[in-house]
Amino acid sequence: MKARIPQQRIPGMLMRGGSSRGPFFRAEDLPSDPAERNRILTAVLGSPHPLQVDGIGGGHPLTSKAGIVSVSDEEGIDLDFTFAQLTPDSDSVQTTANCGNMLAAVVPFAIESGLLTANDDWTTAVVKSLNTGLLSRITVCTPEALPGGERYVAYSGDVSIAGVPGAGSGIDIRFVDTAGSVADSMIPSGKLVDQITLDSGQTVETTLIDNGQPLVLIRAADLGRTGYETVAELNGDDDLSHQLEDIRLKAGRLMGLGDVTEHSYPKMTLVAAPADGGTICTRSFIPHRVHESIGVLAALTVATAARLNGTVAAAVTPADDADGTAIDGGGTRVLTIEHPSGGFDVALECDSAGNITGAGITRTARLLMSGDFYLHG
User: Fold this and answer.
1) How do residues 62-87 score in pLDDT, each as one tens digit?
2) Which of 41, 92, 93, 277 lies 20 to 30 Å from 62, alpha-carbon distance?
3) What percent of the chain has pLDDT over 90?
């Protein structure tokens, strides 16, 4: 009789962060060796398999993510966060880019797992994303269960975000110094518009920008599309897919990112004039499937481009909308980035000259499950 080999158990929690979902782990519960850590992550998610049927992944890049959190040793920083992007059809694990949606679940996870103590009605922590060094200040609601009792993370609320059903408690994220998150600078090529010639001989205008996420912005009309197509229509457009990948590979080199064939960046984003009262309309690719909405840091980067005169984004943004809606006495302006599921509000903090000095967004998150993940023995 064959001896039974027990399954390996790894403690963690399944969290939704923004419009993404994945397991979260304390760094101390995972191996320090990246190769062994990645083996565990792919096993937990069930990659590679299109349905990830032997794991908890949802068969989509937005539900093939993971987060690793620890208490930071750096002065002025509370938590360190490593974001891992997996895919259903590959055993690759990428930790070189950021994810603003999963970032929304970091502080709730830290409190739930005992890495951070909530001592007030609102708990704020400074989080460093180890992938790129991005710093953010995240605030979550942590009321008392009973007067004088233990505090808890409030997940219920009246904040709705596109791409997620229902409503939840708002999580405020303020970003610090997002320029050049992966590339060397916000405009890595040094040009607001770069001409890229496709293998077919067609030349298109692009804006290559990284203000939290490396993006390639293209006017949808320049590729013969409206920019208002549905996700299903774009996912079924093989000609467009080949065009975008051709552009992406060439743009990666122009951005100083080298050969990006195996990377999830830069993200490709089609832009068009707003269709529903927003600032600009987008269709974002991650990088080969269409995003049902748009990523947090991608939205921030699009909003930045919309305010920069001379970019392809500014070219399709009505002049009256480029400044956004003034709040907080006018220093902070909100721009609404339209996407297939609705709109994404980005708050850009500007100085008296209109230069962007900071940015913030509001997300929601939720603890879905807590316990052990089991791996084959």
Assistant:
1) 999 999 999 999 999 999 999 999 99
2) 277
3) 82
Q: What superfamily does domain 194-352 belong to in CATH?
A: Diaminopimelate Epimerase; Chain A, domain 1 (3.10.310.10)
The ranges of the chain annotated as CATH 3.10.310.10 are 8-178+364-375, 194-352
pLDDT in tens, 320-349: 666 666 555 557 889 999 999 999 999 988
Question: pLDDT band at 206, cuts 50/70/90?
Answer: very high
**What is the predicted pLDDT for the residue at 147?**
76
CATH code for the structural domain at 8-178+364-375: 3.10.310.10
Q: Return mean pLDDT, the chain.
A: 93
SS (H, E, C) the chain: CCCCCCCEEEEEEEEEECCEEEEEEEHHHCCCCHHHHHHHHHHHHCCCCCCCCCCCCCCCHHHCEEEEEEECCCCCCCEEEEEEEEECCEEEEECCCCCHHHHCCHHHHHHHCCCCCCCCCEEEEEEEECCCCEEEEEEEECCECCCCCCECCCCCCCECCCCCCCCECCEEEEEECCECCCCCCCCCCCCCCEEEECCCCCEEEEEEEEECCEEEEEEHHHHCCCCCCCHHHHHCCHHHHHHHHHHHHHHHHHCCCCCCCCCCCCEEEEEECCCCCCCEEEEEECCCCECCCCCHHHHHHHHHHHHCCCCHHHHCCCCCCCCCEEEHHHCEEEEEEEECCEEEEEEEEECCCCCEEEEEEEECEEEEEEEEEEECC
